[in-house]
Amino acid sequence: MIISYTDIDPTTLDNLIESFVLREGTDYGEQEVSLAAKVQAIRRQLKAGEVLIVYSELDETVNLMSKQHFMQQQAADGSM
Known about the structure:
Strand order of the largest sheet: 1-2-3
């Protein structure tokens, strides 16, 4: 189930994004990117609809994923 970022308390949303960024493990190359910049980038992607907040009823977990990845996963699962 997709949850709109606007339906989440702002503090909770910040914590969710920070948790995602901290476990992401992406290498940004030679230039270090601050946590605040990473959080802002994810927030912009959420607002643009490029990243989705997905709740798994089966696992009772919340995760962030790209819209493209979500669509591919749904197609593979036959859920579309």
